């Protein structure tokens, strides 16, 4: 039984069962409502953005796919022979990933997870899980405990500063927010509304600064075409 607030799980299962009639609506504090196309969550490797393809190719050893959704990234890694585990807070997504053939998948919040990996994978604006600027240290410290010696964190993010640019080239900022990338979000699907949650769009320089504060190296791997990037974070040797 999928909970009524598990918007992602409901939509994924409907699509899987051939009952695709509408997409997920994303509500945010910084923009008008937008649609998340459900078929996109089932994309094959060839359909993925270059940043995602690059991140998957860089994965090595025992890998944890954090926020695995429908399992598309994990399934590709599994097919290449990697020891991969998917993890998601959506019970419906976890059940569907298992149904699609993912051997190892866990229903759990990342902060409650303990094990050690060679690669931690956080894609589709992976910095979003940090929730807010104030919680970045909390998450980085925990992710660091999940790394084996020589392990890596592969994470993508997006700098949305462009959304606050005025015609004269200056920028305006919400004074009620500590950082322009802090966003309040919620998702709805059909007649159900999910719980509100905090989501963080983080620029690379801030991510690098926070990583260094927590004795981590942060390397820019790839820039996208619209302010998005892929970074690799490793422990300071």
List the helices and strands and how they pair.
Blueprint lengths: L6 H10 L7 E5 L5 E3 L13 H9 L4 E4 L5 H8 L4 E5 L2 H9 L5 E3 L9 E6 L13 H10 L1 E12 L23 E8 L2 E2 L3 E4 L3 H10 L2 E8 L4 E8 L2
Q: Can you give keywords for this protein?
A:
237 residues, alpha/beta, Rossmann fold, 7-stranded mixed β-sheet, 5-stranded antiparallel β-sheet, 6 helices
Number of domains: 1
Number of strands: 12
Q: Largest beta sheet, briefly?
A: 7 strands, mixed
Instruction: Please write the string of helix (H) and strand (E) elements.
Output: HEEHEHEHEEHEEEEHEE
CATH topology: Rossmann fold
Structural class: alpha/beta
CATH level-1 class: Alpha Beta
Q: Any overview of this molecule?
A:
With 237 residues, the protein is of the alpha/beta class. 24% of the residues lie in helices and 29% in strands. α3 (72-79) links the parallel β3 and β4. α1 (7-16) packs parallel to α4 (91-99). The termini are far apart. The model has no long low-confidence stretch (mean pLDDT 94).
Quick overview:
The chain has 237 residues and is of the alpha/beta class. It contains 6 helices and 12 strands. The radius of gyration is 18 Å and the shape is globular.
């Amino acid at each position: 039984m999928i909970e009524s607030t598990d918007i992602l799980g409901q939509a994924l299962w409907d699509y899987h069962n051939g009952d695709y009639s509408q997409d997920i609506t994303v509500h945010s504090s910084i923009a008008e409502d937008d649609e998340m196309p459900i078929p996109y969550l089932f994309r094959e490797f060839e359909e993925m953005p270059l940043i995602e393809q690059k991140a998957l190719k860089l994965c090595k050893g025992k890998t944890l796919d954090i926020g695995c959704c429908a399992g598309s990234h994990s399934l590709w890694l599994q097919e290449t022979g990697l020891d991969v585990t998917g993890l998601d807070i959506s019970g419906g997504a976890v059940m569907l990933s298992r149904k699609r053939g993912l051997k190892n998948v866990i229903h759990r919040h990342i902060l409650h997870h303990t094990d050690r990996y060679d690669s931690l994978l956080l894609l589709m604006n992976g910095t979003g899980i940090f929730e807010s600027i104030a919680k970045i240290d909390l998450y980085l410290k925990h992710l660091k405990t999940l790394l084996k010696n020589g392990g890596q964190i592969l994470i993508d993010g997006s700098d949305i500063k462009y959304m606050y640019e005025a015609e004269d080239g200056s920028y305006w900022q919400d004074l009620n927010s500590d950082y322009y990338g802090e966003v309040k979000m919620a998702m709805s699907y059909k007649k159900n509304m999910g719980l509100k949650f905090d989501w963080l769009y983080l620029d690379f320089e801030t991510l690098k600064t926070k990583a260094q504060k927590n004795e981590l190296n942060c390397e820019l791997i790839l820039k996208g075409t619209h302010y998005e990037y892929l970074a690799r974070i490793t422990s300071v040797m």
